[in-house]
Design goal:
Elements (H helix, E strand, L loop, with lengths): L3 E3 L1 H29 L8 H25 L1 E3 L15 E6 L5 E7 L10 E3 L3 H6 L7 E6 L2 E11 L2
Parallel strand pairs: 1-2, 4-5
Antiparallel strand pairs: 3-4, 3-7, 6-7
Length: 156
């Protein structure tokens, strides 16, 4: 299996999710038992819903356990701080709209638009990787062309 690169915060987030899912198993098993006690399970919607929840829970636990077995936590001390790499916090200026943008570069597993966590494998992420403060980039994305200037690079 390929290595999965995560920030320390991303690793802890996945571990917390795994623990929550494992604790949920007992509740799901109890719901299945309660539904089973209602009689004929062939037409029992509560039983079907509980079995579906059990299958979804087990699949997600398996997926997380597999992912976490091959995790490599990205430590900042081995990464240059003057260029954009995984774990970098980047301030950009959109040269067309003059909007200020703020992203953290993360692995695809950690990407989250609402948290401004940008995957290093996304079109914008790929284009930013390895560039330094002051550089201007033209990035082709499915929606068109973006023009950014790198204003600041920091590490958490």
């Amino acid at each position: 299996m390929a290595e999965v690169y995560l920030t320390r915060a991303g690793y802890h987030k996945f571990m917390a999710e795994l623990e929550a899912l494992k604790s949920e198993r007992l509740k799901i098993a109890h719901a299945i038992e309660e539904a089973r006690l209602q009689g004929d399970i062939s037409e029992n919607a509560e039983y079907d819903a509980a079995k579906d929840a059990q299958a979804h829970n087990a699949a997600r636990i398996s997926e997380l356990e597999e992912r976490l077995m091959s995790v490599r936590i990205v430590e900042d001390q081995n990464i240059p701080s003057d260029k954009i790499f995984i774990g970098a916090i980047v301030d950009l200026k959109d040269l067309d709209t003059k909007e200020d943008l703020h992203y953290m570069m993360v692995s695809p597993e950690e990407s989250n638009y609402e948290e401004n966590k940008l995957s290093m494998t996304s079109p914008i992420g790929k284009a930013l990787m390895g560039h330094a403060v002051g550089e201007e980039l033209t990035i082709k994305v499915p929606a068109g062309i973006l023009r950014y200037k790198i204003m600041k690079i920091a590490r958490p």
